[in-house]
Automatic annotation (TrEMBL):
Pfam family, one: Csp
Name of this protein: Ferredoxin
Taxonomic classification: Bacteria, Pseudomonadati, Pseudomonadota, Gammaproteobacteria, Pseudomonadales
Signal sequence, renumbered to the chain: none
Organism field: Pseudomonas tohonis
InterPro entries given in the database record: Csp_YhjQ, YHJQ-like
Amino acid sequence: MIRERYASCIQACNACAIACEHCAASCLREEDAAHMALCIRTDRDCADLCRLAALLMARDSPLADEICRLCAIACQACAEECAKHDHDHCQECAQACQRCAEECEVMAKAA
């Protein structure tokens, strides 16, 4: 069943997208938001790719494995960038991104 095959990865992608959006919004409220520009950009790219990956998996698209490969790359980059910052929102985002990267790598390899 499609739902069982993708459930864990879809959940990780959705959680990651939310964490990234929260992180980007929180970074914009930081005292030196300009210093957080790369984090914000990385968060936004990651969130968009996570949402797309979740949608393609939900519809069992033949492109789901390819977008999961790309999503894993974006999530890993975002995890690394967010981990550089001491803010709680960045650390939480880094953890969500790392989990999503791992889930997407498994999904991409399973295809």
